[in-house]
Amino acid sequence: MGEQQLDVVTADDLYYVPVSEFDRLRAKRLDAVEEAQTFALLARLNTLYMIARAWSGHLGTSFSSLEIMSWLFLREMRNLDAGPQACDVFFSSKGHDAPALYNVLIALGLLEQDQIHHLRRIHGLPGHPHVETPYIQANTGSLGMGISKAKGMALANRLLGVDQKIFVLTGDGELQEGQFWESLQSAVNMGLHEITVIIDHNKIQSDTWVKDVSDLGGLEAKLRAFGWHVERVDGHDIAALQRVFRAVDGVRDKPKAIIADTVKGKGVSFMEGPAMKVGELYNYHSGAPNEQEYASGSAELIAQAQERFKTHGLGELKIESAVRQPRKPVLKVERLVVAYTQALLRQAETHPEIIALDADLVKDCGLVDFRARFPERFVECGIAEQDMVSMACGMAHRGALPIAHSFACFLAARPNEQIYNQCSESSKVIYVGSLAGLLPGGPGHSHQSVRDISALGSVPGLILAEPCTEQEVVALVDFMVNGTEESSYLRLVSLGWPVPFSLPANYTAEVGRGTVVRDGDDAIVFGYGPWMLANAWEATERLATEGVSIKLVNLPWLNRLDTQWLRDVIGPIRQIMTLDNHYVHGGQGDMVAAAIAELALSPISRVTRLGVTELPQCGTNDEVLHHHKLDVDGLFASMQQAWRASPATVGPSQDAPGAGRRG
Amino acid sequence: MGEQQLDVVTADDLYYVPVSEFDRLRAKRLDAVEEAQTFALLARLNTLYMIARAWSGHLGTSFSSLEIMSWLFLREMRNLDAGPQACDVFFSSKGHDAPALYNVLIALGLLEQDQIHHLRRIHGLPGHPHVETPYIQANTGSLGMGISKAKGMALANRLLGVDQKIFVLTGDGELQEGQFWESLQSAVNMGLHEITVIIDHNKIQSDTWVKDVSDLGGLEAKLRAFGWHVERVDGHDIAALQRVFRAVDGVRDKPKAIIADTVKGKGVSFMEGPAMKVGELYNYHSGAPNEQEYASGSAELIAQAQERFKTHGLGELKIESAVRQPRKPVLKVERLVVAYTQALLRQAETHPEIIALDADLVKDCGLVDFRARFPERFVECGIAEQDMVSMACGMAHRGALPIAHSFACFLAARPNEQIYNQCSESSKVIYVGSLAGLLPGGPGHSHQSVRDISALGSVPGLILAEPCTEQEVVALVDFMVNGTEESSYLRLVSLGWPVPFSLPANYTAEVGRGTVVRDGDDAIVFGYGPWMLANAWEATERLATEGVSIKLVNLPWLNRLDTQWLRDVIGPIRQIMTLDNHYVHGGQGDMVAAAIAELALSPISRVTRLGVTELPQCGTNDEVLHHHKLDVDGLFASMQQAWRASPATVGPSQDAPGAGRRG
Predict the structure, then answer these.
(1) What residue numbers bound the domain in which B534 lies?
(2) A395 within a domain of the structure (yes/no)
(3) What CATH number should be reported for the domain holding residue B602?
(4) Are B585 and A457 within 8 A, CB to CB?
(5) Lower Cβ count inside 10 Å, N or C end of chain B?
(6) Residues 640..659 of B with a Cβ closer than 8 Å to A: which?
(7) CA–CA separation, B20 and B2 (whole Å)
(8) Distance (Å) from the C-alpha of residue A278 to the closest C-alpha of chain B?
(9) How many Å lie between the alpha carbon of A311 and the closest alpha carbon of chain B?
(10) Mean per-residue pLDDT for A311-334?
(11) d(CA B353, CA B367)
(12) B390, B406, B425, B456: best to mutate for the A interface, most A CBs within 10 A
C-alpha cells in the first residue's frame, strides 16, 4: 500500500486518497461549495476502492448520496468534535450506503483511516451500519425504521433537555415500506421540527426503476398531505443543497422532508442509472465491479479529482494504491436458488393457479425467468412485505396458490403477524426465504437470518423446511406444491457451496424424516442445509481418522419431527449432536433435543446442541464461520470435545443400562 | 326464550328480533332506503342482545357500521344466494364489528338464527371474524390487513376470470397502521377498481378520540395524494349511501375509498361518542353493558323499532326474549395488570429516564395512571406498533429507558423485526405484552397470544419473563428496570385469577431460576403464569389423593434457564412435565426439555410437554380451557396418564440405573 504517483490505472491495483489529502483540501479554505464538491469526489473514489477491495457492497446508492453526506458533515452537523452522543445526529435509514458514510467519516478523521481496507471484514466495517462503529447512530439494513427512530431520539432529547438536529437519509424504494408512512403522522402532531429527512431519490430500487416496481405517485403531494414541510432539490448540486438546508432551518413548527433528486451510481459514467438500457437490470446495486469496471471507473474519478485539485491550486493529488485480492475461484457448488428457479418453473407449467409474489428482490430470489415466462402470474409488490403476505392471503382465499418471496430475514419478521393471520385461515401459501442463515457474512446481522425458524416455527399450519442440495430443492418444492394442504416456508441458503455427499436418486420429502448421508456407530449428528452439513461431513471425516465413527443425518424439517423415525435412526447410539444454521435457542436442535427428552431413550443419551449463540459477526464467510466455530475446525473441535467428555459410547447392545451415566 | 309481547323492559331479560320479523319487513317491499333504515335498527337491537348475552363484544364500532353493512347486504352485494365464494365480497378489516355483521347475516338467513345466542362461545361465533363462519371472507382482528387482502382477491379473480366487487370496511384508528398506507399505492398502480373501501370514520379509537391519539390530518387529501378516488358521506344516511355507491360504480380505472362519517355507539343516546364528556374515556368500545345500561339501551331501540313498524303499516314488532346469565362473581384474584401499574409508577418515581409508550391500549395496558402522573413521559403512538418500537429504539439510544406496551399478540409479531433491530443495538428497552396466552377466550385467536415466546425467544439480548402473581410482577419489573442491562419482555396474563399459593415474602427474580410452590417427590411440573399454575396446583392436589406427590415449580423465565438450578430442583425425580400457556412447539417446555436432554440425567428421565397444540378456540374461559385440556380436569388427566405410563418413579437414591427404562 505504498504511496505512488499514478500514471496508469491497471486492472490489478486499487486506488484511494489518503486522509492527508482531504486535510490538504480543507486547509485551503476554499469556498464551502467548491470544497464540498471536491470532498465528495475524493470520497467517491475511496468508496469505489472500499467496495472493490471487499468484493462486495452497494455502489449505486453510495454514489447517489455522497454530495448530501459530504455537505452535511462538512457544514450542517454541529459539534462533531464533541463526539457522537453530543453532536447533531445523522444516520441513513436505507443503510446500504454505509460505504459512502464510512468514507466521509474517515476523511474527516472521525473514523480510523486504516478501516478503509476493512469493509465487510470481521472487526472492520459492517456491510450495514452498526452502532458499535463510531458516529453510527442507528443499526439499519432493514428498511423504513429511520423516521421512527428519529422521533424517539427527538422526544428523548426534549425530555432530557438536549438540543440536537436530527438528519435522516432515506431511500426512495424504501418509501414503499408501511412503517415510513406510519411514522409520518405523529411527527407532525408532535411538531418534531428537529427532524429533517432527506430522501435520496435516485429512482432505482435494487436493480430496476422504482416507477416500474411500485410507482410512488406524487411524492411531494403525499408528504404535504401528511403535514410535512417539503422541499425539492438536485441532490448533487451542493450550492442548491446549501440553500435548501438554510430554508428548512427557518421552519420551526413541523418536521421537514427534502426530496433530493439524485442519480444512482452518480459520478462514473457507465454506472449511472440513466445509462441502463431498456429491459436491462441495473448492475451496480450490490456486489462489486469486476477488474475492468474498476479500472475504468477509478480512472474516470481520478481524472476528475486531479483536474479539480489543479484548479484549486492544490497541485497533484496524491493517491495510494493496494493490490486487489483475486476473487475466489468458483468451485462446483450447489446453487439452491438456481435450482429453485427451475423447480418453480416446472411446477408453474402444470399449476396455472400458481402466482409468484416478490418484494423487490426479483434477481436475488431467482424470479427473473418466472417473470419473463409468466408475466401475468408475477406480482411485484415492492418493498412491502406485509402487503405482499396479506395479498397472498387474499389470493389463496380466491383459489390461487400464491408463492411469496423475500430474504428470510425480512420474510420471517416483517410480515410475521400477517403470515400467522394467513395460516389461521387454513388457506395455503408457500413462502420462500432466501439468503437464509449465517452466510454470506458480508451484509451483516440485519441480513443474516438466524432466528427465522424460531419466529415462524410455532405458526400453526406452517411447515418449515430447508434443503441441502439442488436435488432436495426440487423434492421440497414438489412436496410444498403437491404433497400437503398446509402452508409452508422454504428456507434457502443463497450462497453456493460444494457438498461432498449426495442424496439417494429416488429421494422424496417425507415430513419429519431425514436421510443418513454418512453412516457411523459412535455418535449421531443432525443438521440441515448445504454448508453446515458439508462442514460437518468434513469434520466427521477427520474424526474418523481418530477412530470415531459418526453418523450424519440431513433433517430438512425445521418444525416437524417424526419421533418413530427419530428413535430408529438413533438406534443404539447415545451420543447425539444437533447443528443449527440459526440460534441454538429456537432452532431445530431444540426440537430434536426436546423429542429425545420425551423419548427417554435407554440407556441414557446425551444431546449437545451447536449453532449460533450471539449476534452474527459481519465479515468474510471464512471469518464468520471461524468466529462462530461453525467452520470445519470448529465443528471438529466441538465434536471431539463432546466425544471426549462423554462416557464410552454404548455398543449395539441395549443391555447395558446405565452405561451412559455420569457421576 | 319464548316469544312474548313486550311491555316493560326489565333488567334481567334480553330481547331480540326473530328472523321472521326481518322477513316480514322485506316482504313489505318498502322503498329501499326506508327498508334498510329499519333493517339496520332491528339488527342494532339484536347486536345489543348478542353482546349483552356474551357479556363481551364491541358495541361502539358495531353500531357505527350497521347502516353501511345493512345497505351493502340488502342492495349492493350481488349473488348472495350463490354462496360466499360466488357472491360479491364484503369483509371488515377492523373486525371487532363482527357482532353487527353476524346480525346482518342472520337477518338475511345467511347464518343460522340460533347463532344469535352463541357469540364468543365455543363452536359459536368468534369474537373476531373467522373464515369458518359462513360468509366471513377474511380473518381479521389484527388491524390494517384489509386492503392488501382485497388486492390479492382482485388479482386472483382477474387471473381466474372471476367478476366480483370487493368491499372492505375499515376503522379510522386502523389507518394509523403502516400496512394501510403500504397497501394503497399498488392498488392504484394496478388499477384495482374492483375494490371499494369504506372507512367507518366514527372518530373514536378504543376509548378515546382519534384526533387525541394520532390525528389523521386531512384524510381525503391523503387518500387522493395516493391516487384513490375519494367520496365522503354520512354513514348513517342510507339515501346518501345509496348515492355514493352509485357514484363509485362509475369509476372504472382506480380503487375507491368512501369516507363514511359515523357516530361510535350510534343509535343509543348515551352510548354515542359525542355523549362522552371531556376528560372521560369512551365506555362502550369493548366489554358489555351492565344490566341498567342494557335496559335503557334496549328500551330506546325497541321504542324506535315499534314506531317504524307502525309507520310502515307492519303492526306490532314481535320481539323474543331470553334470560341473561348473571355475570360471574368476582373472586379474590391476582390482577397482574393492576400490579404492573403500581410497579411502573414506583419505578418511574425514581427513574426520570423512564418513558412509557402505548399503542392505543392505554386502559388495557394499565397506563391511565401513568399518563396522569407523568404526562410528559407518556407517548401515545396510536395503532402503530412498528413505529412505537423504533421510536423506543431511538429513545434508548439517547439515554432514556423506554417501556413499550401493547397486547402480546400484536407486540411480539407486528414489530417483530423492529424489536430485533433494537436489541441488535445493545440498547435497553422493556416491552410489556398484556393479554398474553390462551385466556380470555372471547376475543378469538387474533388476540390469544400463544406464539409470542417462540416469535421473540431467540432475539439476542432480550429476556422473556412471565409473572404468576402480583408480587412477582413487582419483582420482575424491578429486575427489568434495575437488575439487567439487557432488554426484556414482560408477558402479562390480563385475566384476574385466584392463585392458591404464594411466593416467599423475600422473593426476588433470579434469571433462569424458578421457585417450588408445592413440594413433592414423585414427579415435577414446570410452568408459569397465574391460571396455568393455579390449575396445575389443583390437579396436583387431586393426584395427592391418589398417593402421587408432585413438585410444582413456578419458572417465570421463558428463554433463560440456569441448568445447575434445573439439575438441583429436579433432584432424584425422573418424571418431568412442562406446561405452556403457549404452543408446545417453541414454548418454555421445549427449552426445559432440551436442557434435560443435554443434562443426560441418570437414571433416565422422561419429559412430557403440555400446552396448546392447535389454533386456539374462541369461547368462554371454561370452554376454551376444557377444549385444550388445560383446565384442572385436563391437567389432572394428563398428569395421571403420564404417571401411569411411566415406570415406577425412582426414589431418592441414584443407584438404580436403568430404572426409568421402557421396553
Answers:
(1) 515-645
(2) yes
(3) 3.40.50.920
(4) yes
(5) C
(6) 657-658
(7) 14
(8) 20
(9) 43
(10) 90
(11) 17
(12) B390
Is B24 inside a domain boundary? yes
pLDDT number for residue A1: 35
Q: Is A418 on the interface with B (CB under 8 A)?
A: yes
Query: Do residue B253 and residue B396 come from a single domain?
Result: no
The verdict on a CB contact (< 8 Å) between A138 and B393 is yes
Contact A178 B182 (CB under 8 A): yes
Chain A residues whose beta carbon lies within 8 Å of the beta carbon of residue B182? 176-178, 181, 384, 386-387
**CB-CB neighbors (< 8 A) of A647 in chain B:** none
Q: What is the mean pLDDT of residues A52-67?
A: 96
| Average model confidence (pLDDT) across chain A | 93
B626 and B605 share one domain: yes
Of A454, A597, A614, the CB nearest to B596: A597
A148–B393: do the CB atoms touch at under 8 Å?
yes
Check residue B646 and give its pLDDT.
67
Do B452 and B519 share a domain, yes or no? no
Residues B220 and B306 in one domain: yes
Interface of A with B in 330-359 (CB under 8 A): 353, 355
B482 and B342, same domain (yes or no): yes
The percent helix, strand, coil of chain B (3-state, each to 5) is: 40, 15, 40
Predicted TM-score (pTM) above 0.95: no
Q: Per-residue pLDDT for B8 more than 50? A: no
Asked if residue A25 lies in contact with residue A323, where contact means CB atoms within 8 angstroms, the answer is: no
Residues of A in contact with B180 (CB under 8 A): 178
Assigned C-alpha cell, A568: 430408529
Residue-wise pLDDT tens digits, A140-161: 988 999 999 999 999 999 999 9
Q: Is the pLDDT of residue B3 over 70?
A: no
Same domain, A319 and A340: no
Same domain, yes or no: A152 and A268? yes
pLDDT tens digit sequence for B445-477: 999 999 999 999 999 999 999 999 999 999 999
Q: What is the rounded average pLDDT of the residues A169-198?
A: 95
Average pLDDT of the segment spanning B435-453: 96
Is position B300 within any domain? Answer: yes
**Domain CATH for A484:** 3.40.50.970
Phi and psi dihedrals of A271, rounded to 5? -95, -5
Q: Is B416 on the interface with A (CB under 8 A)?
A: yes
B-contacting residues of A 581-600, CB under 8 Å? 582-583, 585-587, 589-591, 593-594, 596-598, 600
Which residue among B439, B456, B491 closes a domain? B491
Number of domains in chain B: 3
Place of cell 409479531: B413
Choosing from B456, B491, B526, the residue where a domain stops is: B491
Q: Which of residues 359-398 of A touch B (CB under 8 A)?
A: 376-377, 379, 381-382, 384, 386-398
Indicate the SS3 state at residue A238.
helix
Residue A353 lies in a domain: yes
At residue A38, φ and ψ (nearest 5 deg) are -70, -40
Same domain as A342, residue A316: no
Query: What is the percentage of chain B residues whose pLDDT exceeds 90?
Result: 89
CB A88 within 8 A of CB A166: yes
> Look-up: residue for cell 440513466?
A274
Does A119 have pLDDT greater than 50?
yes
Question: Closest-CA residue in chain B for A452?
Answer: B455
Provide the grid cell at B179. 400496512
Q: Do B586 and A585 touch (CB under 8 A)?
A: no
B346: alpha, beta or left? (left if phi > 0; alpha if psi -120 to 50): alpha
Q: For A278-292, A615-629, B340-354, B368-382, which range has the lowest pLDDT when averaged over its residues? A: A278-292
What is the chain A residue with the closest CA to B422?
A: A139
B448 contacts in A (CB within 8 Å)?
none
Amino acid at site A230: V
